[in-house]
Amino acid sequence: MSDLKQRLLDDMKLAMREKSTIKLETIRMVRAAVQRKEVDERIELDDSAVLQVLQKMVKQCKDAADQFTQGGRDDLAQKELANIEVMEAYLPAKLSDTEIDSIIQEAIEQTGAESIKDMGKVMGILRDKVQGRADMGALSSRIKALLG
Description:
The chain has 148 residues and is mainly alpha-helical. The chain folds into 2 domains: 3-88, Uncharacterised protein YqeY/AIM41, N-terminal domain (Hypothetical Protein Yqey, Chain: A, domain1); 97-147, Orthogonal Bundle (Arc Repressor Mutant, subunit A). Helices cover 78% and strands 0% of the residues. It has helices spanning 3-18, 21-41, 47-70, 74-88, 97-111, 119-130, 136-147. Helix 2 (21-41) packs across helix 3 (47-70), helix 2 (21-41) crosses helix 4 (74-88) and helix 3 (47-70) packs antiparallel against helix 4. The longest helix is centred in the middle third of the chain and has 24 residues, at 47-70. The chain is globular and about 55 Å long.
């Protein structure tokens, strides 16, 4: 069992003892998504794959919170935001803007990228380095600005 999956299991048990409803529901939801992916793909997920599942779930919760806010359902939006808070505890710390810029510059130099056409090469290198620590959409726009 990967370290992250074990941490989720341990935290779920702790949440049960503490009777922390939101945390317990969220962790169960994450564990179910991880297990579903393992069953569907017939593999044992490692930490990076579990991180991908977590990132996807955080994005879905953010989208749902936005939709609920627009629909005037602040109670449901608050629940989604609470879920996000619990899930983000399992994601690696976010990179600062200067760290992101330095990593992008390093990747551009490494690939020899000169124009937007080379953006795929740069993104390929960055995907592994910043997984879970930076928003890929924001990263993409920064790369376009530098190469454009």
